[in-house]
Amino acid sequence: MADLREQRAAVKFYFLLGKTGTETFGMLKTAYKEKIHKIILEDRRQTIKEVVKRSGVTWSLVQRILSEDLGMRRVAAKFVPRLLTEQQKQGHVESCSSLKEFQNYLNFFSKVITGDESWCYGYGPETKQQSSQWKTPASPRP
Q1: What tens digit of pLDDT does each residue of 33-67 get?
Q2: Which of 48, 71, 117, 126 could form a disulfide with 131 if both were Cys (CB 3.0 to 4.6 A apart)?
Q3: 23: in domain
Q4: Residue 32, Cβ neighbours under 10 Å: how many?
Q5: Inside any domain, residue 114
Q6: What pLDDT is recorded for position 125?
Q7: Residue 2 to residues 7, 31, 50, 62: CA-CA distances in angstroms?
Q8: Element housing 64 (H / E)
Q9: Can you tell me the distance from the alpha carbon of 85 to that of 91, in angstroms, rounded to the nearest whole number?
Q10: Are strands 133-135 and 73-75 parallel, antiparallel or unpaired?
Q11: Does the predicted model carry a pTM greater than 0.70?
């Protein structure tokens, strides 16, 4: 129903059936709800802007359908240490233990290398917003 002619035809049809404006809006919203739900299920990490581009529906209607009708909300994944493997946990413990030992040396701080607050990643990290995804109340945490 993204085509404007199709929408106008649907509105005229509902008017001829004697439906009120609220009922017409509700019926159109129901049709869009299924379409938007399919788009979100394809990739839950899409933003509302991306869904708007794919569906041809306004931003406010997409947001209303996602939050009110489908009960979805945008949730960012949290880093939880329990998700680390035993090997990763052991590596963290060893690194901290060796730093704890080295702090007792006299020239420890003169050997610490600092930078100009530039981060160099060995991979392309995502921001918290980029990694967030849509979830329903019944779905598990990301």
Answers
A1: 888 999 999 988 889 999 999 988 889 889 989 99
A2: 126
A3: yes
A4: 22
A5: no
A6: 62
A7: 7, 10, 15, 13
A8: helix 59-64
A9: 10
A10: antiparallel
A11: no
Assigned token pair, 35: 């379409």
* Crossing angle for the helix pair 21-42 and 4-16, to the nearest 10 degrees: 140
108 in any annotated domain: no
| Tally of structural domains, the chain | 1
Four-residue CA torsion sign, 36, 39, 42, 45: negative
Instruction: State the residue range of the domain holding 22.
Output: 4-78+127-135
Hey, how many other C-beta atoms are within 10 angstroms of the C-beta on 114? 5
Q: Is the pLDDT higher at 107 or at 125? A: 107
DSSP codes of every residue in 6-52: HHHHHHHHHHHTT--HHHHHHHHHHHHHHHHHHHHHH-TT--HHHHH
Confidence band, pLDDT 50/70/90 cuts, at residue 3: low
Decide: helix, strand or coil at residue 131.
Answer: helix
Which residue type sits at 25?
F
